[in-house]
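In response to a reviewer's request, we include the raw inputs and outputs for one of the modeled complexes. The two entities were modeled together in a single run.
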Amino acid sequence: MTFNGWFQIALFGAVVLALVKPLGGYMTRVFTGERTLLSPLVEPVERGLYRFAGIDRDQEQHWLAYAGAMLLFHAFGFLVLYALLRVQDLLPFNPAGQAAVAPDLAFNIAASFVTNTNWQSYGGETTLSYLSQMLGLTHQNFLSAATGIALSIALVRGFSRASAKTVGSFWVDLTRTTLYLLLPLCIVYTLFLVSQGIPQTLGPYLDVTTLEGGRQTLALGPVASQVAIKMLGTNGGGFFNANAAHPFENPTALSNFVQMVSIFAIGAALTNVFGRMVGDDRQGWAILGAMGALFLTGIAVVYAAESAGSPVLNALHLSGGNMEGKEVRFGIVASALFAVVTTAASCGAVNAMHDSFTALGGMIPLINMELGEVIVGGVGAGLYGMLVFVIVTIFVAGLMVGRTPEYLGKKIEGREVKMAMLAILCLPLMMLGFTALATVVAAGLAGPANAGPHGFSEILYAYTSAAANNGSAFGGLTANTAFYNTTLAIGMLFGRFFVIVPALAIAGSLAAKKTLPASAGTFPTHGGLFVGLLVGVILIVGGLTFFPALALGPIVEHLAGAAGQTFGTGG
Amino acid sequence: MTRPSSSSLFSAALVGPALVGSVKKLDPRAMIRNPVMFVVEVVAILTTILFARDLATGAPDLAFSGQIILWLWFTLVFANFAEALAEGRGKAQAASLRRTRTETSAKRLRGNGADYETVPATALRVGDVVLVETGDIIPSDGEVIEGVASVNEAAITGESAPVIRESGGDRSAVTGGTQVLSDRIRVRISAASGSTFVDRMIALVEGASRAKTPNEIALNILLAGLTLIFVFAVASIPSFASYAGGAIPLIVLVALFVTLIPTTIGALLSAIGIAGMDRLVRFNVLAMSGRAVEAAGDVDTLLLDKTGTITLGNRQATEFRPVHGVSEQDLADAAQLASLADETLEGRSIVVLAKDRYGIRARDMASLNATFVPFTAQSRMSGVDLDGSSIRKGAVDSIVASVGQPPMASRGSNAAIAYKPSADSLEMREVQSIAEEIAKAGGTPLAVARDGRLLGVIYLKDIVKGGIRERFAELRRMGIRTVMITGDNPMTAAAIAAEAGVDDFLAQATPEDKLALIRKEQAQGKLVAMCGDGTNDAPALAQADVGVAMNTGTVAAREAGNMVDLDSDPTKLIEIVGIGKQLLMTRGALTTFSIANDVAKYFAIIPAMFLGLYPQLQALNVMGLASPQSAILSAIIFNALIIVALIPLALRGVTYRAVGAGALLRRNLLVYGLGGLVVPFLGIKAIDLAVTALHLA
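The model returned the following structure tokens for the whole complex.
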């Protein structure tokens, strides 16, 4: 570890923090329907869209209607994307002549992009046409991200409203998020990325002669526009197979830094939106504080583990950190930071191969996802995931001040606890359940590239990434099989919608409640004590469940490695 | 908080029946009410069956699995024991109540109202009218419709001094099981046999009719959810182990599962609820439901009647304020004479003040040849007539009006003709300004006049109860707003409110005002507690979230409230809030403790469980437990014993201190959160040492 390394981490944190208030303020105005800087430009378009779709922008929805609209919208999006992939060979913008996508892979891709996961069982440049990338994936990148943000705002409204029947309009939230937030930011961001050297073209792949005289095909395409939204919207699906490790997706140190910041920007700012909307900024900062504490612990462990390098190699007097699977141009700290950021948020873009991290370095991304990606998290998803944990925390510990639990003046009762537990239960069921299945059936056992604990980690990582809607891959797992494509897709769909719908139910039930004024007897939820408590509950309720699995994966791998034992290849 | 000392928790008389009860409660039909412990029971039954099979076929490690199974059953028995013990404490109280109820007969009046038939109390129906005479036990709850009687209510209140029950007014309710000591009353029965006050009290303290409160239901959902999470965590292990090339014995998986699920709070939850109810009963307050006790902890606003709660019931003379030209001594002398025969507490206080401050000794009415003129609602004054002179004291406006007329004693005599009333004489204005000053300061002015001449004003002061100011400060720290309810005018009310330190007051309050105030507070989302006794309090009692009816009150008030204070002490509202908070805190503290325990249990069992697969995992055995088997056994023994160890805390409750929520949270988090993390590490290690020493594993 070096001073320079820690400085980069500190700078990253400072830039993200500096963005929280301005972005949060702007987003609050967008979601409360106020005029913004962009209104003169965007409002006519917004009106036009409502008129075209027959939406009354003042017509708010009950949470059930909101959930219904969201599910219907995604079912439609899912079918369109699936169909598009299945017939891409017949459609234009296919200069590389990609064939139609196989049914199981198309199912997996559709599930993956609709759920904001962007798990990729395929290599983009060898599988998809430009049309599929742009109309199918980039389009879903926008809408799945906008949905996450809309949902989190609906939940925030549950806290900020009193005795209300409605939680907002899904159509309006979706439209405003896209028009006022994602599109403008992405346009600017895309131009920046182009300036850094990322291609943005509809032209065909280039055949070039290398310096040694060999011939090589350079894959190109409308890359910059997709990279912009894949980061901002925490989608993570790369244009190329190598994702952000590819020089055309992430060419410079600056682009790497900005990409990391853009993963956290909206998620972190949403905590500020939360604070503003409930009328107490400190509440937002407390939540961000809990996220920050978990994040800093994570990066410290990964950076330390990667800097220390492999104990097996160290024993052979090969000193130095672990550079396997990392881009030399990024080095250890930028790779470690990227890995923690991308798994803390549900982005899943990678600039290094997590499979090649040290056992402990690879364990932190795994834990980040197992906690439900509440450390900043996916845009929107991180906030509502965190609020679900807040509800559990308040319920467990709130009684200790001698009152029935309440948060921000809302009584937390049976219904909220039931929905919060449903949302929390879904993740271990998908992650552990499918891992348990894959580790005993032949189709599952055929996947991992390594034997022993590392192979186990590869399987566990895949299902964890899918259910948490992260989409990053540990690598090493051969996932483009009917078994993995199908089970991972199911994991993604459950991991998304079985969290969203309970969260919306909580929003509806909270909005209908009265808001109690705070008093000296009210559980304080803005201080360090609460932050510590929240972190504790997240680790114990969210994390301990995975202790047996982690013990058999990265922990034992680390202990064995320290003792000089390796497990070879398997699969 | 003061409360009557409770009997020893583990007295032999309670423990014996509780042990029997805890085995009886193993019946799965009873167990299913508690989801966490029901799951443990299902697991225990299945493993016992498998154990029996293994015993027949002969399998390795039978001694080990036998011990684990034994401790599973112990866990269940300990959980039941906690509940049975809590119920037992209530039952002991109920038993004495029940004795009063047996074999009562009633004198039911026939339609003509003149003669009666003797029927068993159990045959009475609502609406029947019974005659209760000296020595009779009142057969059922009801309302006195005719007569006055002194009644011994020791059976329900424990207070042996008899109380007066009379028809009409606010003291008309009688309770079945209490005894008439003198006189006779006619009582209209208001509760059928089996649903009387005493019946409900018995059912509640025994825990028989205890419905789960909303918070308990929600907590059970959380515990069930956590249990399900650990089902996933444990059920996936066999596959993981098989991938690693081994297998985990079922009994070890069972041990991990049972130690991880929140058995501690699951086992103690109902005991905590019963004990909370029990604490109220010991405090001579009867809650009609557990929901009411929970609500008491949540109260945001307390409505307190001024008289009897904030101030002593009577006012006292504290000062004589003469008008210009009259000495204090003269005024004191006149006031004392006017009060000599006044037997009211206020009158006495005037005599006492005159003696204490001006050395005016009591005089004999007869020797002075004085005649007492008693207070009447019409004249609103009282006094004495002596030797052609008359002294009056009373409400300022009445006295002032009276000096505008000929003096009473000389009315009709010639002197009256010479009397020249002056509508706004100097004295009148002076008296009125003094009176206003006193009222502003929260006192009650009494004007004194002799022979039509105003002498001055007696300052009667409402005496705020000692220590009440501190109580209100305490409540404020708890985040509770206090509102004083009084019939006084706003000026007086404001002064007393300031002196007592209440946050707000409602002056010249009518029952409608009270109800409106409660609704207004509730509209803001606040929970309101109040106490009351009169029939006109009933709507407000019913509207309040916690309505404490005084036992001396009317049937209507008692029906409307959700708690009854058997001592009829309105100050108790403050303690009731404390008991509610204590109940909730105990529940929260033990939940936190239970969940925090899991960390140590994981570290005990996970390395032990996987050691056969990966010997490297020995590094996770941070407690240095002797062997995998002893580690697993120690964890499950700790899991069972911690239930027993926490029973006293569950029954007595976590101490509540009236500090802010932040300080309370910090303290409880330190004790029960951090304690919950650390204690099991130490406990499991200690048990492991014992297990190893005894060669149990």
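As requested, we also summarize the result in words. The radius of gyration of chain A is 23 Å. Residues 22-277 of chain A form one domain.
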